[in-house]
Each structure stands twice: as C-alpha cells, then as structure tokens.
C-alpha cells in the first residue's frame, strides 16, 4: 500500500441541501483524482448495503416508521460501523470522497424540531468520528434545488422541511468549509472541487493529522 511511503489519504466530504449536486460532484472527483494518479474511492452515507443501512432505507422509503431519536441513532451507527474501515483505508493511502456524513445527520434530525433533539444532542452521537480534511459545501437556495430533476417521494423530500435543513447547515457552518455556489455549471464546480481536493491530498500526504468531530 501507499501508506508507508506516500502518507495517508485524505477525507473529502460533500455536503449540502437536496439536489445541490453532491453525488454528481463526488463521481467526477473520484474519476478526476484517479486519473491524476491519486487512489480514491467513493463512499456515501447512508450506506444502505449494511443491516443498519437496510433499516434506514426502509424508513426513508416510508415502508417503516421509527422513533425520531432511534432513526437518528441508526444513521449515526451506520457511520460508526464503517469507522474502522475508514481509518484503515486512509492510513493505507487511499483518499475517500464521501457523499454526506454527520453534518447531514444533524441538519436533518434537528429539522424535525422535536423536544430534546436539538443541534447539540444530534451532534453528540457523532462526536469522535473521523473529521473531514476538506468539507465542500454546495450552497443553493431551496427554491432553486426544487427546479432540478429527481426531487422524489422519499420521506424528507418536502419543501418546508428542506428549508429547515438548510437553516441547520448554516448553524453548523465553519470558516474552514469550502463553500461553492452550486448553481454554477457542473464542469466549473468540478474544477474547483478538484483543486480543493488536490490541496487536501497533498497536506495529508505530508503529515496533516486526521481530526475528529466536532472540531
Ligand atoms: N440523511 C439523514 O437524515 N441523516 C443522515 O445521517 C444522512 C442522511 C447521512 C438520503 O440521502 C436521505 O438521508 C437524505 C438525507 C438523509 N434525505 N433527503 N432529502 P441521499 O444522499 O440518498 O439523497 P439523494 O437521493 O442522493 O439526493 P441528494 O443527495 O439530495 O442529491 P445530490 O446528490 O445533491 O444531487 P445530484 O443527484 O448530484 O443532482 C441532482 C440533479 O441535479 C440531477 O438531475 C443532476 O444532473 C442535476 N445537477 C447536478 N449538478 C448540477 C449543476 N451544477 N447544474 C445543473 N444541474 C445539476
Ligand atoms: Mg445524492
């Protein structure tokens, strides 16, 4: 593996409201990195392939109902169950491009406005997970994302709810986030994302330590 010689891989995270283009950019970025000789993998949360992920999938498709705290804990557990593999991949020199993470977890659950499930409670279940080396936030007004294809029938795909989600992202936002205007073209956004990612890859290769949430 690249670990011993080339240093660790970088954790690049894409976050942002529904339909802002995260999955599109993740795919392009993994291809762009690989074609530049940077070994990169695409991961996404929720990972619907695990036993926990299948429970989440049933919930999102409204096939099952669940207590709001309980499903929040499942989304979080879905990240914890992949923590060891994440650490191994990064240590072996593989860069991970990840589509949604704990920031989605907190932004979505807190948008339910249930007593007790405030921002701090939502964040607490992810505290200690690996932190992204670069967080690319695709910024877009809800009105604009609604015009895009694919706004579907899953549980959270409702306009008012999405507005609350965006408000929560704003509360979570930190200076270190790389915020890009998601209404630009796919190609322009990709060019910026690639620059940001290559910068993070270089920093990690040369010794930047991996952080933990919620630094
Ligand atoms: N959730 C949660 O509650 N708790 C958690 O802990 C986590 C998630 C991790 C499933 O997510 C749900 O889980 C989600 C949050 C919640 N609920 N909602 N709503 P998901 O990741 O499976 O959601 P998705 O179905 O992939 O949708 P998305 O991620 O919101 O979309 P996107 O990935 O950001 O967008 P896209 O698929 O790349 O693009 C959307 C469309 O726009 C598509 O037609 C593209 O061709 C087009 N597009 C993309 N970029 C552009 C630009 N630049 N210009 C014009 N058109 C564009
Ligand atoms: Mg997506």
UniProtKB/TrEMBL annotation:
Superkingdom in the source lineage: Eukaryota
NCBIfam families listed in its UniProt record: DTMP_kinase
Cellular component terms (Gene Ontology): cytosol; mitochondrion; nucleus
Listed GO biological process terms: dTDP biosynthetic process; dTTP biosynthetic process; dUDP biosynthetic process
Span of domain Thymidylate kinase-like: 14-192
InterPro entries: P-loop_NTPase, Thymidylate_kin-like_dom, Thymidylate_kinase
Metabolic or biological pathway, per its Swiss-Prot or TrEMBL entry: Pyrimidine metabolism; dTTP biosynthesis
Enzyme class: transferase
Keyword Translocase attached: no
EC code(s) of this entry: 2.7.4.9
Molecular function as annotated in GO: ATP binding; dTMP kinase activity; nucleoside diphosphate kinase activity
Family: Belongs to the thymidylate kinase family.
Record keywords, A-Z: ATP-binding, Kinase, Nucleotide biosynthesis, Nucleotide-binding, Transferase
Protein name: Thymidylate kinase
Pfam families, A to Z: Thymidylate_kin
UniProt keyword annotation of Cytoplasm present: no
Record Gene3D superfamilies: P-loop containing nucleotide triphosphate hydrolases (3.40.50.300)
């Amino acid at each position: 593996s690249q670990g011993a010689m080339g240093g660790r891989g970088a954790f690049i995270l894409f976050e942002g409201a529904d339909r802002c283009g995260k999955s599109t950019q993740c795919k392009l970025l993994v291809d762009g990195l690989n074609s530049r000789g940077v070994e990169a993998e695409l991961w996404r949360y929720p990972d619907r392939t695990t036993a926990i992920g299948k429970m989440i999938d049933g919930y999102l498709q409204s096939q099952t109902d669940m207590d709001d705290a309980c499903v929040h804990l499942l989304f979080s557990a879905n990240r914890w169950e992949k923590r060891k593999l994440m650490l191994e991949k990064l240590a072996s020199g593989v860069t991970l491009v990840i589509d949604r993470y704990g920031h989605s977890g907190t932004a979505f659950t807190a948008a339910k406005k249930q007593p007790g499930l405030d921002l701090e409670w939502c964040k607490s279940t992810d505290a200690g997970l690996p932190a992204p080396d670069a967080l690319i936030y695709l910024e877009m007004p809800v009105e604009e994302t609604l015009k895009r294809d694919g706004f579907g029938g899953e549980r959270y795909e409702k306009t008012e709810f999405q507005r609350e989600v965006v408000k929560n992202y704003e509360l979570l936002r930190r200076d270190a986030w790389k915020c890009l205007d998601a209404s630009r073209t796919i190609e322009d956004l990709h060019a910026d994302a690639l620059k940001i990612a290559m910068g993070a890859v270089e920093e990690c290769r040369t010794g930047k330590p991996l952080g933990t949430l919620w630094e």
